[in-house]
Amino acid sequence: MVGFDASDDAAVYKISADTAMIQTVDFFPPMVDDPRDFGRVAASNALSDVYAMGGSPRLAMNLLCFPSCLPLDVVGEILSGGAEKVREAGAVIAGGHSIEDREPKYGLCVTGFAHPSAILTNGGAGEGDLLVLTKPLGSGVLTTAAKAGLLDEGANRAMVELMAQLNKTACETMLPLKPTACTDVTGFGLLGHVEEMARGAGLTARLIASAVPTAAGALELAREGIIPAGAYRNRDYLAGKAFVDGGVPLDLADLLYDPQTAGGLVIAIPEARSRELLRRLAGAGVVAAVIGQMVRREEFNVTVGV
């Protein structure tokens, strides 16, 4: 049903008339110091692709790389953190694979399921649909600052919990309201992933920068030049595809390109159902905001106004 050709979040294989299997894999090196937190965040990030497709994770396999000098109790904490999030998702870990490597890396191969008619792709939005973001931006800037020792304990904990928060509640809340498309915000940043949505739909995503929620402290750090290298790569890649109005403050513009770890969902939904979606998300404890709208195709796939 869904393959590699559309830059979607996961592969989807139709098993029967009422069951589709969703398959995804994701792993990376540590972005936080605490090994258990690393496992939690990496698992949250890997599980997110299933939620972005409108599915429920059911099975996960550990992917682990670690040097022989790494104490086994540290490895155990990484795996324990991952298992915590898999349990929270309602899935089970059924094994995995580990290899020796110079740098620790961890993640999951995740299998989920959904009804074939409920599968969401990143390219199904219609003209006039509103775009709803379910997590604030800034995890790339914040993790860069944390590595440089620029975050206090409270800010660091808030950053970790933001990334470790599953997109499970957001997914379960949106599905009854029949969104038309969905993706999650990860390494290509908000603009990169919204550009994929617009391109897939043959439309232009018109975003309002001032409506985009940002994580506490992220704007101030961006203003000080604490920008990850991935943000510059995203900006270069989107040249000619995305246009950001010159009136958008530079610090906010930087966050639009900021690569996210376990970022929120971007949900496309008809305007008539958007207010109810926001109401239900708020009631479920998900801080969400309308950040833009899909419009008829223009010169750029994404435009960002003030």
Looking at the structure, the CATH topology of the largest domain is Phosphoribosyl-aminoimidazole Synthetase, Chain A, domain 2
Tally of alpha and pi helices: 10
Give the helix/strand class: alpha+beta
Following the backbone from N to C, one meets helices and strands in this order, namely EEHEHEEEHHHEHEHHEHEHEE
Distance between the termini: 38 Å
Assign the CATH superfamily of the largest domain. PurM-like C-terminal domain
Question: How much strand content do the residues show?
Answer: 25-35%
SS elements, strand count = 12
Number of individual domains: 2
Largest sheet: 7 strands, mixed
Structure, explained:
- The structure is a single chain.
- The chain has 306 residues and is α+β, with helices and mostly antiparallel strands.
- The strands form 2 sheets. A 7-stranded mixed β-sheet has the order 7-10-6-11-8-12-9, sandwiched between helices. A 5-stranded mixed β-sheet has the order 1-2-5-3-4, with helices on one face.
- It is globular.
- The chain contains 10 helices and 12 strands.
- The chain has 2 domains: 11-118, PurM-like, N-terminal domain (60s Ribosomal Protein L30, Chain: A, 2-Layer Sandwich); 130-305, Alpha-Beta Complex (Phosphoribosyl-aminoimidazole Synthetase, Chain A, domain 2), CATH 3.90.650.
- Strand 3 (56-66), helix 2 (72-88) and strand 4 (92-100) form a beta-alpha-beta unit.
- It comes from uncultured Eubacteriales bacterium.
- Homodimer.
- Its cofactor is Mg(2+).
